[in-house]
Design a protein that fits this description.
The protein is an all-alpha fold. It contains 13 helices and no strands. The protein has one domain: MetI-like (MetI-like fold, Orthogonal Bundle). Helix 5 packs across helix 8 and helix 8 (177-211) packs across helix 10. The radius of gyration is 24 Å and the shape is globular. The two termini are 13 Å apart. Its main location: membrane.
């Protein structure tokens, strides 16, 4: 187990280095001078001396390899530098917003699992009958509706018409735990709807595949109750594809919650990324993309370790 984890950790470190290098190169290949773009006002060309002074301040006058070396050195010290726009510490802003996005995505994943997994098992056990047809149709509908439509309808109906919940916003947990949970639950449930449908479909297919195996048929022939068969012989073997789907979706959601955060006015990391792109704040964009990519790599590392716990044969693959 330890050797397997060490190998995966080494691969993860190489991937993070590759992402950091790629992001650095892509940012520097974008046409235009960042200093000129920051100083340009109303389409008027900035003063050359001001541009030169800003380039020196930002280190853009250094050779590319020197900038790359300094970039990697800063990352090793977890120093993301200062914003080009207002000179606030980028690391502090990420540290403030990242837990909010992680909480949002984590709660969405939990809700999707709690909903999709049992309903997928139910659909598999009632294949061809009414529950299976209803659940399959509902999953197809949930997957076809865009997340921003679900969020907008939730705000319109639950918040503005029924007044059951606030329309959006954010309150720190320490300030008001109940209101904090309510404000996070709405966007998390919006994200979880489509994810739960995906989990339901994958669980249904995986359970149906496991039910056809010989050891499960033998358990059925012995007269074991369906609940016992699912718990002892089916569920663990069917979890691999479910974990894979959750990992892929949660990884993409780390940087893909922009629309949900916008609809619910949720101050997470994705909204921060949009603002940085609009302002052409390259250090901010670089830092945010790198953090999201590193989290995606870390998530995949954790999923690999989960595979080993579910099926020890994976470590020998």
């Amino acid at each position: 187990m330890l050797s397997f984890a060490a190998r995966r950790l080494a691969v993860a470190a190489l991937l993070v280095w590759a992402v950091a290098s790629l992001v650095f190169l892509v940012i520097h290949l974008i046409p235009g001078d960042p200093a000129e773009l920051l100083l340009a006002q109303g389409g008027v060309a900035p003063d050359p001396d001001s541009v030169a002074a800003l380039r020196e301040k930002l280190g853009l006058d250094q050779p590319l390899w020197v900038q790359y070396r300094d970039h990697l050195a800063s990352l090793l010290h977890a120093d993301f530098g200062l914003s080009m726009v207002d000179e606030h510490p980028i690391g502090a802003e990420i540290a403030l917003r990242l837990p909010r996005t992680l909480e949002l995505v984590g709660l969405a994943g939990l809700l999707a699992t709690l909903i999709g997994l049992p309903l997928g098992i139910l659909a598999a056990l009632t294949i061809g009958r009414l529950p299976d047809r209803i659940l399959s149709a509902a999953a197809g509908l949930a997957l076809s509706v865009p997340v921003f439509v679900v969020g907008t309808l939730a705000v319109l109906v639950l918040a503005q018409q029924l007044h059951w919940v606030p329309a959006g916003g954010y309150v720190p947990l320490a300030k008001d735990p109940l209101r904090h949970f309510i404000l996070v639950l709405m966007p998390a449930a919006t994200i979880a709807l489509g994810l739960a449908a995906a989990v339901l479909r994958v669980t249904r297919s995986a359970v149906l595949e496991v039910l056809e195996r010989d050891h499960v048929r033998a358990a059925q022939a012995r007269g074991l109750p369906p609940v016992t068969i699912v718990r002892r012989h089916v569920l663990r073997n069917a979890l691999m594809p479910v974990v894979t789907v959750l990992a892929l979706h949660l990884g993409s959601l780390l940087g893909g919650t922009v629309l949900v955060e916008f609809v619910f006015n949720y101050p997470g990391l994705s909204g921060y990324l949009v603002r940085a792109v609009e302002a052409r704040d390259y250090p901010e964009v670089t830092a945010i993309v790198l953090v999201i990519s590193a989290l995606f790599v870390l998530l995949n590392l954790l999923i690999d370790l989960c595979y080993v716990l579910i099926d020890p044969r994976v470590r020998h693959g």
